[in-house]
Protein: Isomerase
Organism: Streptomyces piniterrae
Amino acid sequence: MPHITIDYDKPLDDVLDRRRFALELHSLAAKTVDGITVESCKTRFRRVDETVIANGEHGQALIHIDFAILPGRTTEAKAALSRAVLELVRTHTADVPDTVVHASVDVIDLGPVYTKHVG
C-alpha cells in the first residue's frame, strides 16, 4: 500500500521520465498522508496507444492516476493528496510541445479484504 497506477498517452512517452516521476510521487505521498511510507509505495505505468478526447482533435493527451490507499483516511487527506499529485503531474508534463495535457487523479480506498505478501 499504496498501489498507484498511471495510464498515460503515447505523446507523453518522450517527455515523462517515469522513474523520476514515481520516486518523487512516493516521497510526496509519504509527506502528505500519515501512514504512507516511501517503502510501501508501488507504481505501475501503462502506456495507452490511443485516446480520443472530446471531438478528436489532435494535440491532446491524457494522464490519469489511480492512487489506492488503505481505508480510514479522511476526505480532506485524500483531497490534499489528490491536489498534490495533480500539481506534480503538471510539473512533469508542462513541456509537451503542441499538446494540451488533460490530467486527473483519483484517490480511492483499497477493498475491505485487501491482503498482501512480500517475500
